[in-house]
What does this fold into?
Amino acid sequence: MSTATLDWYGCATFRLRTPEGLTVFLDAYLDRVPDAERSGVEVDDVTEADWILVGHSHFDHLWGAERIAVRTGATVVGSYESVRILARLGVPEEQLLAVAGGERLALDATTVVRVLPSLHSCVWSSQPMPPADEVCLGELGLTLQERTAKMQALWAGLGALGDDVRAHLAAADLSERGDGGALVFVLDTSEGSVLFQDSIGCWSGVLGGESPDVAILAVAGRGNRDGEPVQGSTADFVAEQAAALGARRVVPCHHDDWLPGFSRAIDTAPIRAAVERASPGTALVDLGYADGHRLFESPLT
Ligand SMILES: [Zn+2]
It folds into this structure.
């Protein structure tokens, strides 16, 4: 008997297949810079997709959706900004669904997805990608203008990036207006429910009302709790969310070295330890690339 499977393709991109044969991409960033480890699947390899759910409008989540949608006929669900970009890139309007949180969509006769408002990580922070066990403090109460100035200083430092990364950034440039508003998706399938978060931030009151079987959580970047940078470590923030959700499994994402020279691989060992302390009933399940993880059945290793 077939069962739901989840394949990770690096960064925060996954493919979910349901027992009923539905293929759902969670984000669409498959084509990586030459130096990044390959997941084995690139946009040109994708021949089948029914839906693409995009968590936010940054290129490392959205880029690829425009080609997958056109090739497969998949419908893309994303923020109004993600949809604006995809329409400009030629995705037919009838394949675009703009959402902001609060919507409930039937993906087929058995699978339903709910859309929740969420928050992006604090990319503007002076510690934008700390190791998981590093405690980060401060930077509270900044205005948007102050955050923007910090962000510009950060970008000014990217001059050291190599030619491959620069060429990749140019190719993947979507001219997006910020993150476009981050979204979380909760899919209710015939076998169980899975929550998908592709950037480490949340409205704690919104997340606390959810109780998925599996939670895919972003574990890289300076966390964002209710609009302010997390005061503490990434590991403890992920553990806090895991405990609030009460999920049996947490699948980490965004923690590989997806853009060498810019990103860094995040060691998940401190996150695993923190989750075990805060939520003893939750297992952290590290996926390899494209390993056909049986989402609700695979052994908890
Ligand atoms: Zn982002």
